[in-house]
Amino acid sequence: VAERLEKFKTTIFTQMSMLAIKHGAINLGQGFPNFDGPDFVKEAAIQAINAGKNQYARGFGVPELNSAIAERFLKDSGLQVDPDKEVTVTSGCTEAIAATILGLINPGDEVILFAPFYDSYEATLSMAGANVKAITLRAPDFAVPLEELEAAVSKDTKAIMINTPHNPTGKMFTREELESIAALCKENDVLLFSDEVYDKLVFEADHISMASIPGMYERTVTMNSLGKTFSLTGWKIGWAIAPPHLTWGLRQAHSFLTFATCTPMQAAAAAALRAPDSYYDELKRDYSAKKAILLEGLEAAGFIVYPSSGTYYIMVDHTPFGFDSDVEFCEYLIREVGVCAIPPSVFYLDPEEGKKLVRFTFSKDEGTLRAAVERLKAKL
Ligand code: GLN
């Protein structure tokens, strides 16, 4: 394996899902629904295939999807963007992240992440030869330590990457935090990469896009996808929204990474994004009920549970059970309790910082969540 990828192992999501299968554990690890996406979206894909929409798509997205993305972004963030010049369709948000980083970051450029961070950020930054710095968000509220961030940002900083709502903590960046980060970006001429794939899974406050903070659109790449919002994580439809000068860079990378994204699924994605507001309301209601089941179960089982206001994850502290590390605890949980979760130490530059924590997902049907909760209460 190339040196730039040597330190990265099989992703923790794959490792844990494989262990869960081997031991017959209920999988509350990898964040994907165990139920299907909506019929109207699946029907739209079947129709597109039958209508012969099966050859290469326009490289940066089929026109109807670029337009649907721009319309949704206007509705959600109040920003009017040009669907052909500022929206790029990618193969999942993971490709949007890769295209953004590879298209805009030079070897040696400094990029600041917030730990715990989604694993692909660090690996892709390594592929780009970037110099990664991380600022740690700490329990219980995972607030941004502003003074540490201020001390870290300098004229050498090329970009800051955020994820709100935040995987794996469930934290949402507050308006004050976004404004403070924005001020630092403007002062130091820093780009901002914002992964917002959980924007529709919010339970307390409304989601705020960094691009909507005054003066930020021109330096921000906003990334999102269909997977979480429409329970279609296997479709791998994502996108990046950015002003033309940033879009140009990320499209150069996208052209040579995948060239174009699956044509019929893009047609169906356009139909999905035009769903009425009632779809999103129902999604939130469903996930609120699921979250309540898992939350009650984790508390009753004896974890220290941290508040989660967005995403489909809950972060807990496992120290009441007396294990030395998150990995050891999660292995015990799979083998002896029959429940799979994610050990988050891989989401830190220094794994020690994550070793008391464990992430559970509630992206499963209520029966599965109840069965997992029964096991946690009975066997932990
Ligand atoms: N985003 C999902 C999670 O955090 C799954 C990621 C993956 O399997 N690569 O669990």
Automatic annotation (TrEMBL):
<dbReference type="GO" id="GO:0016212">
    <property type="term" value="F:kynurenine-oxoglutarate transaminase activity"/>
</dbReference>
<dbReference type="GO" id="GO:0030170">
    <property type="term" value="F:pyridoxal phosphate binding"/>
</dbReference>
<feature type="domain" description="Aminotransferase class I/classII large">
    <location>
        <begin position="26"/>
        <end position="376"/>
    </location>
</feature>
<keyword id="KW-0808">Transferase</keyword>
<keyword id="KW-0032">Aminotransferase</keyword>
<keyword id="KW-0663">Pyridoxal phosphate</keyword>
<protein>
    <submittedName>
        <fullName>Asparate aminotransferase</fullName>
    </submittedName>
</protein>
<dbReference type="GO" id="GO:0005737">
    <property type="term" value="C:cytoplasm"/>
</dbReference>
